[in-house]
Amino acid sequence: MLHKTNELFMPSRSLIPGQSLILASLLMLALLTACSHKTETGPVAVRFDEDICQQCRMVISDPHFVAEIRYFPPGKRTKVAKFDDIGCAVTWLKNKPWKADKKTEIWVADYHTKKWINARTAFYTKVKVTPMGYGLGAQSTSAADSMNFTQAQQHIAYVEKHEHAHGILPDIHQQQAE
Question: What pTM did the predictor assign?
Fold first, then answer.
């Protein structure tokens, strides 16, 4: 008489005590990692005096004026570009295919607190000295002489056209990409 057994489904060797717990823990960790799709948003830490401005290629050193753009290239993870001045960020973004993408995030440091604020909702006041001479400091609250983001973009375009030589010359970064 034949007896049905489960021997075909049992491992040929016995597990060491605790080994099954380790295997179960590793499996659970793999499942949690695979299932947790963390959305990448917001600014990232800047390494002052180490990180380089994506537009002008100068070292980022002043926390009062730093800016970042988080963009979403098609089919890739998000990327963050860092800038030493909001003017560099706006100038860099104007020729990018993701400039009108609603997911593109623009962050700027509040000139007074050095905390990140959304560049699109920030208020900008004219200041005398900025890293690249665009002359704008961002802040989270409105002031009598402050500009909104659209007005700040217009100010940056004016400075780019009339005061910065690289605004007249062909974009070297664009030529390098081709």
Answer: 0.71
